[in-house]
Design a protein that fits this description.
Elements lengths: L2 H4 L8 E12 L2 E13 L4 E5 L6 H8 L7 E6 L2 E2 L3 H9 L1 E4 L13 H12 L4 H14 L4 H4 L9 H13 L5 E5 L7 H15 L4 E6 L2 H7 L2 E6 L2 E7 H6 L4 H10 L11
Parallel strand pairs: 3-8, 3-9, 6-7, 7-8
Antiparallel strand pairs: 1-2, 1-4, 4-5, 9-10
Helix pairs in contact: 4-5, 4-7, 5-7, 7-8
């Protein structure tokens, strides 16, 4: 196993992106998606990237994970440059992904048990009973009764239940890092409350979390650190309390005003 996967560099963030730039050609015109983007996620830290649609949030995350090649800049996992294959593979092996639309990431012919076990099947080395046991534990960890959900199909789940199954799938391999792109977008109010509970439980377990969010209320409830992006640039970074309670940049203040609630008040406990 690669040293980047098996050991922890106490002096380095789990992941760190420095000076990332990315441009695309659309309809014959050059469009800049990321400009000198730098961000980091430390062990046990929860980081939310916020901003309007098209601000470059998802592109920044994809580059930081090595899923999209930046035009320039550097990305490190546990202090090692992910240009090295063993470092890149190490990062992928400890990362769990949670997608915006849970249904689109699931085979409708598969039960929840099969969906959650998919990463274990791909990794190999476990018996059927061992995989079933891990899937049951993972479903229970997100507040779903395994005896009820192991045999359920996606069409028999609410949006919130489907997203919790997706989170269980991301957790089943014991990741060090969870990455979630707008995880509440397909979820109703009741489902959101349940998923907030799940994420806050994970934060207490020393799992690093990197989220893309447009909802500042969720950022306040779920993040230790908030990164604000606008027009492909990081314009403000700091603790959630600092950025959302005492923003330095006019754009951040505009986002807070548009949210129509007072982020300086303590987040609701759920």
């Amino acid at each position: 196993m690669a040293v980047y996967e098996s050991s922890r560099n106490a002096n380095a963030p789990l992941i760190e992106a420095i000076g990332l730039n990315k441009a695309f050609i659309r309809s014959g015109e050059r469009v800049t998606a990321a400009r000198d983007v730098s961000l980091s996620v430390r062990y046990g830290e929860s980081v939310a990237i916020v901003g309007e649609s098209g601000s470059g949030k998802t592109t920044a995350v994809r580059m930081a994970l090595g899923l999209e090649q930046p035009d320039s800049g550097q990305i490190f996992y546990n202090g090692g440059n992910i240009r090295k294959k063993k470092c890149r593979d190490g990062l992928r092996s400890v990362t769990g992904l949670i997608f915006q639309d849970p249904y689109s990431s699931m085979d409708p012919r598969w039960t929840a048990g099969q969906i959650v076990e998919e990463p274990l099947v791909l990794r190999g080395g476990l018996s059927r009973k061992e995989m079933d046991d891990k899937a049951c534990d993972s479903l229970a960890a997100v507040g779903l009764d395994p005896s009820d959900f192991m045999g359920r199909f996606p069409q028999d789940m609410s949006g919130g239940q489907a997203q919790r199954v997706a989170i269980a799938r991301a957790l089943v391999s014991g990741p060090k890092l969870l990455v979630a792109d707008e995880p509440m977008s397909a979820v109703d109010v009741s489902g959101r409350l349940q998923i907030v509970k799940v994420f806050n439980k994970l934060r207490a377990q020393d799992i690093s979390i990197l989220m893309v969010l447009h909802d500042l209320g969720l950022a306040q409830q779920l993040a230790d650190t908030v990164v604000v992006m606008h027009n492909g640039k990081v314009i403000e970074t700091g603790s959630a309390r600092q950025v959302l309670g005492h923003p330095l940049q006019p754009y951040t203040r505009e986002l807070i005003a548009a949210a129509q609630w007072d982020v300086r008040q303590p987040a609701a406990q759920v």
